[in-house]
Amino acid sequence: MVSTKTKKKTIETKPRDPYKNFRVLTFFAGLLFFVVGMRSLTLGDSAGALLNGLAGVFFLMASYIFFKKKGQIKNKGN
C-alpha cells in the first residue's frame, strides 16, 4: 500500500514596517518646508527662508536616517 503525504505550503508573512508612515511624512514635510522657504526667499523674507530651510533639512535628514536604517535591517536579515 502506498501512502501519500500532502505537503502544506507555508506562507511566510513579512512583519509590518512600523516606521513607513513616519518616513513618508517626514519626507513630504521636508519638501513642504523647502517650498515654503523658497517662497519666503522670493518675497524677501530672509529669516523665514532660513528657518524654513533649516526645518526642511532636519525633516529630510530624519527621513534619510530612517530609510537608511530600513536598508540596514533588510541587508542584515539576508
Helix and strand arrangement:
Blueprint: H1 20-43, H2 46-77
Overall description:
- Keywords: Membrane, Transmembrane, Transmembrane helix.
- The chain crosses the membrane at residues 21-41, 47-67.
- This protein is mostly helical and 78 residues long.
- It has helices spanning 20-43, 46-77.
- It is 72% helix and 0% strand.
- Helix 1 runs antiparallel to helix 2 (46-77).
- The radius of gyration is 23 Å and the shape is rod-shaped.
- It starts with 19 loop residues before the first helix and ends with a helix.
- The model has no long low-confidence stretch (mean pLDDT 83).
- One letter per element, helices H and strands E, the order comes to HH
The structure class reads mainly alpha
Q: What's the N-to-C terminus distance? A: 43 Å
How many β-strand runs?
Answer: 0
Based on Cα principal axes, name the global outline.
Answer: rod-shaped
Q: Mind describing the biggest β-sheet? A: none
How many H/I helices?
2
- Give the amount of beta strand, in percent: under 5%
* Average predicted confidence as pLDDT: 83
